[in-house]
Amino acid sequence: MTESAPANGIFLPSIETPTLTKAELSELLFERIGLNKRESKDMVEAFFDLVHEALVEGKDVKLSGFGNFQIRRKAPRPGRNPRTGEEIPINARHVVTFHASQKLKGMVQGDVPADEELE
């Protein structure tokens, strides 16, 4: 496994689908901000608890300069079993969608320098 270093200086393993874990986020807070490990872990957990709680309550979550998580209701619809071709009803449900901010989209496209802070 190789490592890649983006402009912000955070090293993440370079794999097909990289995953940033809560433990890695806690470690970054510990290293870059100087919080102790317990405070770092608690801060990451509190952040995700707040996001989770808001989404469960049906509220949108807006992270300035990053994007929005929104709850969308999907209507019931007919489906089909791909193996048998049998029609199966798909119930109405709620799904979480993510829409990247213009700034994040610009950074991904290379239009905005990656070393600019997300606001």
What does this structure look like?
With 119 residues, this protein is an alpha+beta fold. The chain is 34% helix and 28% strand. The chain has two domains: 12-58, IHF-like DNA-binding proteins (HU Protein, Chain A), CATH 4.10.520.10; 60-112, HU Protein, Chain A, CATH 4.10.520. The protein is built from three helices and seven strands. A three-stranded antiparallel sheet has the order 3-4-7. Strand 3 (61-63) and strand 4 form a beta hairpin. The radius of gyration is 19 Å and the shape is extended. Mean pLDDT is 86; it is low at 1-5.
User: Which CATH class of the largest domain is shown?
Assistant: Few Secondary Structures
Q: Tell me the domain tally.
A: 2
Give the uncertain stretches in residue-range form. Answer: 1-5
Total of helices: 3
List the secondary-structure elements in sequence, H or E.
EEHHEEEEEH
Share in β-strands: 25-35%
- CA-based gyration radius: 19 Å
**Span of the ends, CA to CA:** 32 Å
